[in-house]
Specification:
By secondary structure, the protein is an alpha+beta fold. It contains four helices and four strands. Helix 2 packs antiparallel against helix 3. The radius of gyration is 25 Å and the shape is rod-shaped. It starts with a strand and ends with a strand.
């Protein structure tokens, strides 16, 4: 049975943040963190890695806004209604619906992209089998380095525990 990775457990958020910073400086790239609340300095993405969510939200917003505008334009010409002698393509009347659907499309696209990027819903994951992982939502902090990380090869559990000043370091089975 192969290991999914190495998991370090911390009871102190300062030691946890220091260990995450040290893991990044050491060159680990396959790092996951689990914590009951946000810790300053931990949530930043590693350098060079950007989230695709803002770009997806921009594209989703633009497409939904353009779609809303052209749908209204199509409806105005397909079902013409002469109101006060105004032209059929009276674009100022289209602005409220276009704006609202732009915001709605952007929000839905952002949420869907977020779920895809983080892999939700994740009903079964190897770290859920760790004996003390249920404390991640209460008072413990966990740092996981996946075994796919090339830097992890040859690292001993005891050496990592000393380097990171962790309460415990254990293998997580797949």
């Amino acid at each position: 049975m192969s290991a999914y990775g190495i998991m370090a457990e911390f009871s102190d958020p300062r030691r946890f943040a220091a260990a995450v910073a040290q893991a990044r400086e050491s060159g680990y790239t396959q790092v996951e963190t689990y914590m009951p609340y946000g810790v300053e300095g931990v949530a930043e993405l590693p350098p060079g890695q950007r989230s695709p969510v803002p770009l997806a939200m921009l594209i989703g917003g633009l497409l939904s806004g353009l779609g809303a505008f052209f749908l209204q334009l199509y409806a105005a010409y397909d079902y013409p209604v002469n109101v006060g002698g105004r032209p059929l393509n009276s674009w100022p009347a289209f602005i409220p619906i276009t704006f609202e659907l732009t915001v709605l499309g952007s929000a839905i696209t952002g949420l869907a992209t977020f779920f895809i990027v983080v892999g939700f819903p994740r009903l079964e994951h190897p770290v859920f089998n760790h004996p003390r992982f249920d404390r991640a939502s209460q008072d413990r902090f966990f740092l996981l380095v996946r075994s796919a990380d090339p830097r992890l090869a040859g690292a001993s559990l005891e050496r990592l525990r000393r380097e990171w000043d962790a309460d415990s370091v254990e293998e997580v089975p797949s």
